[in-house]
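Two entries, shown back to back:
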Amino acid sequence: MEFDKLNDGVTGFMKGHMIWLVIPFSVIISWMYTSLEQVGESTENPFEGTPNDVPISQLCRNIEIDLREMLGEKELPAPIKAQNDILV
């Protein structure tokens, strides 16, 4: 085990007990992979309309407004406003 090899270069109260570092390092690595999995699941489908998704409706509406302005139309749809600080 790699942590057991560290015993040769350590002095003090940890000498001979470096193998116990496996536990906290395993917990940290497990937490990192769990967090990565949760981020992956929340970004798996970016167009569902949840708070972390791409505001596709607002983007489409802005493109529509810009195109209609370029065509010279006067009656333009209203831009989509955020609801509870979330763009859907």
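entry 2 starts here
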Amino acid sequence: MIPHENLLESWKKAAGTRAAELVEDGMLVGLGTGTTAHYFITALGQRIQEGLQIKGAVSSSLGSQELAKKVGIPVTTLDFNPTLDLYIDGADEIDPFLRLVKGGGGALLREKIVATAARRFVVIADETKLVQRLGTHCPIPAEVVPFAITPVRRRLEALGALVKLRQKPASDAPFITDNGNVILDCTFPDGVADPEAIDTAMQRIVGLVDTGFFLKMAEEAIIAGKDGIKVLRPN
């Protein structure tokens, strides 16, 4: 049973607020993208207004960057600060090994760049994002160079995926990432039994820039749900 939307939002807010407590004075922080990350950014802004002093924050999308500026978070870039202390972001799916599927908001490439620049990556989510097998509830997104859509699509289909070009909401126009690329959403009918193998195969496709698999990257997960907050670590 899917929880009521208001309850889901309260869980997301609880996870984001708890994650903001992890930020300490003097840190360089990575800011994720999406609804749960939105609550984290807002809570971090509130802490800064209350006196927390960080060196700066790197955003994984233009949207998150604008929100950060709005709530008073000092913004920097990886050019000036290539190593971050902490990255906080949401996920579309989380399995028991803390392997993730991300990219529902279309920012997967920048999210992965920021995540790999951080010493510590903590994922935040509500309990509906927990799955036993990745690809069960959402497609695996792939960011693709527009010139290569058709050959990449064919190679993804050869891996067993049902492939759909992501479109803008209420539009026939393709969704365009902050990097000027498109997203091909890949549905595997039975989910993905071996994420490492499928990710490796997808990464070998010329024209495919990156996938929404975030494997062996998250150190812990802050999960909010009907029983409150739980902190999970890989099995």
